Amino acid sequence: MNRKLIIAALATGTLALAGCKSAAPKDLPPAQSATPPQTSQLPAQAPAGPAVGTQQHFVAAVNGQNVIYFDTDRFNIDSADAAALQTQAQYLLRYPSVSVTVEGHCDERGTRDYNLALGERRANSAKNYLVGLGVSADRISTVSYGKERPVAMGSDEGAWAQNRRAVTLVIS
């Protein structure tokens, strides 16, 4: 019986609302003028390109300097690395909502454990440099991939040099 009452109440409410009709407004908005708006009244449009805070925007803004390279068995920041990290820090200071991960990588030589530890030192070295330039440490995470993610295949100095790196990636 309660079920029939609920259904009857719902049906009555639905019919009552369906019978309501809104009247057209008495005042209509003014018709659009045929003259185009002046350009000074148009809002400034963002330039076409990748959205702020994306990896593509970051790489473009730092002129492709999101990767720094290291000498064999080293994790120190040299002058070329410092310039790249300064460019990255300027971006991160300009966009405080962007967080990054610094990946540490190594070449294929050495044991897995040794390369994971060296990759971690490389990533932390880059992070510490960015923090020293004023970027908040809580916006930078680090990870080491050791020799597990090479960008260049080969067992020669050219390939090894490309794989000894720290890569900065936007995560938000």
Give short descriptive properties of this protein:
single chain, 172 residues, alpha+beta, 60s Ribosomal Protein L30, Chain: A, four-stranded mixed sheet, 4 strands, extended
Detailed description of the structure:
The protein is built from 5 helices and 4 strands, in the order H-H-E-H-E-H-E-H-E. The chain has a 4-stranded mixed beta sheet with strand order 1-4-2-3. With 172 residues, the protein is an alpha+beta fold. Helix 3 crosses helix 4. It has a domain of 116 residues: 2-Layer Sandwich (60s Ribosomal Protein L30, Chain: A). Helix content is 40%, strand content 13%.
Briefly summarize what is shown:
Strand 2 (100-105), helix 4 and strand 3 (140-146) form a beta-alpha-beta unit. This protein has a domain at 55-170: OmpA-like domain (60s Ribosomal Protein L30, Chain: A, 2-Layer Sandwich).
How are the SSEs ordered, and which strands pair?
Elements: H1 2-18, H2 55-61, E1 67-69, H3 79-94, E2 100-105, H4 112-132, E3 140-146, H5 157-163, E4 165-170
Parallel strand pairs: 2-3
Antiparallel strand pairs: 1-4, 2-4
Helix pairs in contact: 3-4
The CATH architecture name of one domain reads 2-Layer Sandwich
Mean pLDDT: 84
Q: Roughly what fraction of the amino acids lie in strands? A: 5-15%
Straight-line distance between termini: 57 Å
How would you spell out the order of helices and strands?
Answer: HHEHEHEHE
Give the C-alpha Rg. Answer: 29 Å
The 3D shape can be described as extended
Structural class per helix/strand content? alpha+beta
Strands, total number: 4
Write down the CATH topology of one domain. 60s Ribosomal Protein L30, Chain: A
**Count of separate DSSP helical elements:** 5
Low-confidence stretches: 37-46
Helix content: 25-40%
Largest beta-sheet details? 4 strands, mixed
CATH superfamily of one domain: OmpA-like domain
Main sheet strand line-up: 1-4-2-3
